[in-house]
Amino acid sequence: MSAPDTQRYTLRCRGRLDADFLADYCPAGTTLTIGQESFTLANLHTDQAGVLGIIRSLHNLGCTLLALTIDTSDE
User: Fold this and answer.
1) Which helix (H) or strand (E) covers residue 60, if one does?
2) pTM to 2 decimals?
C-alpha cells in the first residue's frame, strides 16, 4: 500500500458493535465512538479496498451505513 493510495475515512453506522471489532478488522489508530442509536469509526487509515472490506464486515454484522467521509484536512 503506497501513501498516495491511502486516505483517512470516517464511517457512521446504525447497529451494535463492540470494541473487539477494532482489533479484528480495523487498522491501528482507529477510534470507536458509540452513541445511542449509532456508532462512528474514525481515523480509518487505509486504501479503498480496505474500507470496502470494513463496510462488508459491518454489513455482515447487520449494521447499516449512514455516512462515509474522507478526512481531507492536512496533517
Assistant:
1) helix 48-60
2) 0.86
Instruction: Give one DSSP letter per residue of 5-57, joined into a string.
Output: GEEEEEEEEES---THHHHHHS-TT-EEEE-SSEEEEEEEEEEHHHHHHHHHH
Q: Residue 7 is placed in which grid cell? A: 486516505
Of 3.40.50.300, 3.30.70.980, 3.10.20.30, 1.10.10.10, the CATH number of 3-71 is: 3.30.70.980
Cβ neighbours, 10 Å, residue 70 = 11
Neighbour tally for 13: CB within 10 Å? 20
pLDDT in tens, 7-47: 999 999 999 988 799 999 999 999 999 999 999 999 999 99
Q: Residue 15 burial by CB count (10 A; 0-12/13-18/19+): exposed, middle or buried?
A: middle
